[in-house]
Amino acid sequence: MASPSRRKGPRSLALAGDEVADTLLAEDPLALLIGMVLDQQIPLERAFKSPADLKERLGGTLDVGAVASMDPDELAAIFSVTPALHRFPGSMARRVQELCRVVIDNYGGDAAAVWTSAQDGAQLLANVKALPGFGEQKARIFVALLGKQFAVRPPGWQEASSPFGEPGSFRSVADIDSREALGKVRQYKQQMKADAKATAKATPKAAPSSKAKAVSTPKAKVKATSKVKTASKTGAAAPAKASAKASGHG
Q1: Torsion (CA) 124, 29, 181, 153 in degrees, nearest 10
Q2: What is residue 208's DSSP assignment?
Q3: Has residue 63 got a pLDDT over 50?
Q4: CATH number for position 129
Q5: How confident is the model at residue 167 (pLDDT cuts 50, 70, 90)?
Q6: What number of other Cβ atoms are within 10 A of residue 4's Cβ?
Q7: How many independent structural domains does the chain possess?
Q8: Is residue 250 in a domain?
């Protein structure tokens, strides 16, 4: 039986730019999770197309149990076949396998239970954050994606996904439901990078530390004092020798 999240979800998404891949993302919760895990350091279209490619390479079935129990080297080899499913196929193959094992151990093999089992937004965020490959920001983006495009909206979901759950925003994959929206999200990210670069450039460089001067001054004084003491000893010894010579000749 399909979970409520599957019935409320869209017939297709607009993340991979490929009809088959986007339909799989909308229909298969495991494919959606895998796409999110892979969405880093590569174009998002490639990341979200990779679940469909993985399914094809696995013989047409994307089975959580099969991936979880597969020999790690074999799975890494599948990820590495040209075109590779990620820029870092070996490490991402391990992460996807870890994800599948958590789904098996914690959710009985039902990937959708990650969100259908959550009673509120806080629990949903906690469930997602506990998955391999999901940091704080990615977890919030995924909660926003579920709320905006799959109608998974337990109480507090917008707070849990903040700021990505904000209506009408174009901050992340949660807001991409068309090619036009993709362009707006890309424009937003480019502006954020430009702003960050400008801020870093405008920030004045730190002045030389005053501690260095404070440390060098005592050393200089010590050296100067040492020279004075040496000179004093030398000066005092000379008159003494002269006096001794004088008394010897008399």
Answers
A1: -30
A2: P
A3: yes
A4: 1.10.340.30
A5: very high
A6: 14
A7: 2
A8: no
**DSSP string over 66-110:** HHHHS-HHHHHHHHHSSSPSSSSHHHHHHHHHHHHHHHHHHHTT-
Burial of 240 (0-12, 13-18, 19+ CB in 10 A): exposed
Query: What's the CA dihedral at 154, 147, 149, 173 to 10 degrees?
Result: -150
> Do residue 175 and residue 236 come from a single domain?
no
Neighbouring residues of 157: CB distance < 8 A, sequence distance ≥ 6:
120, 121, 124, 143, 146, 147, 165
Confidence of residue 208 (pLDDT cuts 50, 70, 90): low
192 and 217 within one domain: no
Which two three-digit tokens encode residue 147? 């709320």
Domain boundaries, position 217: 213-244
Find the radius of gyration of the CA atoms of the chain. Answer: 33
- What single letter denotes the amino acid at residue 172? S
44 and 147 share one domain: yes
Residue 50 banded pLDDT, cuts 50, 70, 90: very high
pTM here?
0.77
Shared domain for 126 and 17, answered yes or no, is yes
Q: Are 49 and 18 in contact (CB under 8 A)?
A: yes
71-113: per-residue pLDDT in tens? 999 999 999 999 999 999 999 999 999 999 999 999 999 999 9
Domain identity same for 196 and 230: no
Nearest partner of 46 among 96, 88, 85, 95, judged by Cα: 85
Shared domain check, 149 and 93: yes
Residues 136 and 53 in one domain: yes
